[in-house]
Each structure stands twice: as structure tokens, then as C-alpha cells.
Amino acid sequence: MADAAPTPDLVPVTVLTGYLGAGKTTLLNRILSENHGRKYAVVINEFGELGVDNDLVVDSDEEVFEMNNGCICCTVRGDLIRIVGGLMKRRDKFDGIIIETTGLANPAPVAQTFFVDDAVRAKTRLDAIVTVVDAKHLPQRLLDSHEAQDQIAFADVIVLNKTDLVTPDELDAVEAQIRKINKFAKIHRTTKSAVPIAELLDQGAFDLKRVLAHSPDFLTDDAHEHNDEIASMSFEVTTPIDPERFNAWIGALLAEKGQDLLRTKGILSYQGEDRRFAFQAVHMIADGDFIGPWKAGEPRTSRLVFIGRNLNRPQLRRGFESCQVA
Amino acid sequence: MGQTVSADHLLETRGIAKSLDAFVVAASFDRDGDAVAFALGDGSLRLARVGAEDWTEVAAHDGGALALACDATPSGWLSGGDDGRFVRVAADGAVSEVARYGMKWVEHVASFSDGKARLTGCAVGRNVHLFDAAGSLIKTLAHPSTVTGFVFDPKGKRVAASHYGGASIWFVASKSDNPRKLDWKGSHIGIAMSPDGGNVVTAMQENALHGWRLADGQHMRMSGYPSKTSALSFTRNGKWLASSGAESIVLWPFFGGGPMGKAPTELAGGDNVLCTTLACHPTYEAVAAGFSDGLVVMADITTQRILPVAGPGRGPISAMAWSSDGVHLAFGTETGFAAVVDFSKR
Questions:
Q1: What interface predicted TM-score (ipTM) does this complex get?
Q2: What percent of chain B has pLDDT over 70?
Q3: Which of A46, A196, B65, B259 could pair covalently with B39 via S-S, beta carbons 3.0-4.6 A apart?
Q4: C-alpha distance across the termini of chain A, in Å
């Protein structure tokens, strides 16, 4: 794992997911037409819906490829590897990249592309996964589609759109359903995808700084989720972490349960280290890096978050606790 | 001998260099070797007659240029861009559109000529489009996934294209249009064919090369690279396959039963700097190579002597080409430096 601060000149990449009809294209049109002083290269796959003429719009077919790297669930987007490579040859023409996925897309291959491909990693950073959902139809989607659940599970930012089509009570119920899957994403309630662009782009959300800054309801229940529903759990310890123990534990855990663990993220306080260590994984593919130092007087609490299926809270907690220095 | 000369000695005494202010995507001499073109990330081409100090700027693409090759005619080039255009650029800089593909990127271009037959082609998404000398479409070859590279065989009879899951070989004149499929699991991201047309080698996403001996379908696995291979080049006699992607020039022996079971020869290594591109000399058993720190060297494969051409410091080398007579070497960098170096006897 590299021991370096995140490089500031990496191109931020925003992934836009959401079911057909949720308001993704409306949002994209707003991002492209609004005068926010920044230029984005946009990778789309359903050209024609977009009403904006822009020479930086790239039409792409989603090509999900299996990697032969020994990781059984590791898939990447081959088209993105090529397109990012091509765009980097005119790097000076845009400030960021937005990738729109098809409505039915599983977000994992997109996210994994930014972990697995060295050339892509060297030039870009995954800024945030933004998921647009339709307040009226989401409950039904969640019942009939794994992808709809996964898109919420993967999200750093959720645009809860078409709120005018439901009652306030229904809206609260939908938000509660989202929170059950993903406790940590930032939720914006909108109509016509009207959310300030500054709240979506250049969030640094994927690199955790803000996501873990406020930690909602830690350690509330000890339920062991046996069903197929996605849940999120978070754990924290105050004794410093032994990097070797942590790597051994998390490595084995991801190898064994990686298919169920959609996203794992954490900020860790390593023994004898003044900088915070940011850890994250998508399924089995993990990555980590030191980020800025702990603030003076700030409690050095290590936090770890899991979003996935079949999470066993006591087992995960015991495992994380066993990584503390003896 | 014995005295220390600067690594830039050849560049300074025998080179013409320019700062072009855009990523140099590719370099290519025209077929008769009189002039070189550099394709740039800003969509323009720079044309330079060998030895000339004045280079011509040509607005070829609205966006970025992605691919460049010599045309099938003795002079001029073909280029492809992310504006979806496949164009011909004449020696005087005149641009004529061969085809236009809307939103799709034209990511690869190639040509063939043996003096009589002339073919050109471009890869756009999953298709390779082939054109005759007049620029008329001959046929479109459809693949199961995006084409990541294609080459004509040495006689212009076949086209080999790499894609996810392997490579496909097509007969240009075939009526049936069923390719010979070379299957190997994984994502194949570039392709080369040996000068005798007997071997096909692809670069893979997993930092390895894969090859097929066409006579009997024998597989070849060449691995051990720390990063992806973007440049593959056979020596003229077909004995060696030179490849980028390691901290040296990696040369696989295609003789004496190799490359199966043989270790590659590594040249110009030792500095922990990645070789980013290379080009084998068109006549000698030698290879020019560029590195991520900007170093350019010429390596004699037989004697293993390394001759520096340009020292580090001008950006990662991103493009490289020899003139057909092997007298001039052109190279360019990610940060917009470009040069043509004269290797003629003096």
C-alpha cells in the first residue's frame, strides 16, 4: 500500500447510477447546461436522450470484463479503461469526468475499474457514486431488483427524486427504506433532480473524509442479518490498530465474504502513526492510503463500515476488535 | 571513446526538436520515409519533412487525435479521432474525410501496400472497416466486443484484430466473413503479427502477453510485466518480439523453440523506470525505446549495446516511429515534446 498523500491533480470521476426513469438524464442535462464554470467529460450509453451539444460527451457500450486475477467476483469496465486513457490525452480540456451507467447496471464493475487498473488509478480518483432514485417507484424496485438495492448500497450521494409524487409520510417511509440499506450516504430530496451541482460533484466522498466524519447511530443493535437484504453496519474502537493484524483479518474476511460485502470503508488509527489511514474495498478488491494527520486533540477513533448482505454483527465486531494492539 | 558525453548528445547534434504543447499520441513516417507526422491530443497533426525546421500544423480532428498511420499511398497519413472521423492527410496538409462515425471514437487506423494492392482500415467500437485505394468501403468486420487493435498481415491478405476473449483473423477477400477465432480468456488490449505472418501476439489487461502460432494453434504465454504492455514490435527478421511495460526493454525469442519455455532478454534496465513505448529498427536487429522519465535509447540486440538518444526530463515517451529506410527516428512525449533524429552515416 502506497504511503503517500492523495495527489491533488488526479481527475475526479463521478459515477451516476439509477433506474430508468428515476431522473438521471434530467440531472445530467442540468449538470451540462448549468453555468457552474467547470467543464465535464461525460461518458454515456444511451445517447439521444441528452439534450446538450457537448464535444466532451462520449458514447460508450458498457463492456463488463472478468479479470483473471484470482478474484472470483472481480469485473471491470473495459470500455472505461480505454475511454479514460483517451480522455487523458486532452486532460487540459475538462475538470472532471462523469460516467452514466445504464439503469440496470451493477455499480461494482465501475467502482472496481478505479481500483484495479493501474493506468486509470494513476490519473483519476473516484470522487463519488451518485444514485438517483424515484420516490414513488423505489419501494417496488427494491422488491423486484437486486440492482436497485446495489445502486443504493454503493451510493455516496443519493438524489431522492420526484418527491412531489408522494405524500410526506410516504417520503419518510422511502427514506427509511434507503437508510436501512445504506446508513451513510448523503440524501437530497428533490423534484426534477434539482440539486445544487456543488452538492454532487467534487465531493471527495469516495475517499471517505466526509462520509465517516459524522458517524450515525453506531452500535445500535446486535441483530444478525440472515436474509438477502442489504444492510450497513459500522464499528469503532479507540485503541490503536495493529496494521499487520488488520491486514490479515480484513484480507481473510474479504476473500471469504467478498461477494456479500459490497462496500467496506474505514478510517484507521495505526499504532505509532500520526496520519489517518483510509481503507476501502469493493467486494474483494481493497485499497488503502494514508490521508491527512489526526487533528490535535481529536480522539483517534478507528471506524469501519460494511455495506452488504448477510452481515454478522458480533463476528465483524469481534474481528475488528481483535485488530487492536495488544 | 572513454569520454563522457551527454545523454542528449544525439538529440542535440542530429535532432530537430519542438515543443508542441499537447500530448503526442502517435508518430508515423509516410510510406516512402520523406516526412513524419505527429498526432496530438488537441486534435491537430504536425507534419515535418525530414531535415526541415518548419513543421506544418494541420487541424485534423475536433477533439483529440487517437490514432495515426502512414497511408497506403507513398505519401500522406491516416488518422482517427474522438470526433468520430477517419481522415486522410496529404503531404501538403490537405485533409480529406474517408468516413465519419458520429459519436463513436476512431481508435485505431492501419494501411497496407505492396506497391500494387492498397488497403486502409479503421477500428470503431466493435467494427473494423476496410477501404480500397479510392477510399470506398470494402467491408465491415464485426467483433463480439470493442476492437483494441488491428493489423494487416505482411501480404495484405488477412486482418487480425484483438478484443475481449482473444483475437479474430479475417481474410480480406473472403466472401463468407467468418473469422478464425483465437480464443483466450481475458481482455486483450493490443496486437502484433510476426513478419512471416505465422504468429499473432496480443497484450493483455493482466500485464502479460498471449500468443498463438497460427500453423498449429500452439499457445504462448509471456508474463512477468509490472504494468500493461502498450507497444509490441517484431524485429525485421522476426527473431525477436520487443515489448514495453517493464522496467527494461523485454525481448522474447521467436527462434530455437521460443518463446515457450524461454526467458526473455532484457535491455536498458536497472533504473526502475518503465519502458512506455518502443519501435524495432526496420532493417537491423535493433530497437529504439522510450521510458516514463523521458529517456530514449537505441539498443543493439546482438551486442546488447545501449546508445542514448535523448536524456530524461521531457515527459514520458508516448510515441515513437522509424522511417521505412531506418535512417530517421521520431518520438514524442506526453507533455508535448517531439523530435526527429537523423541516424544517417556522416
A1: 0.89
A2: 99
A3: B65
A4: 23
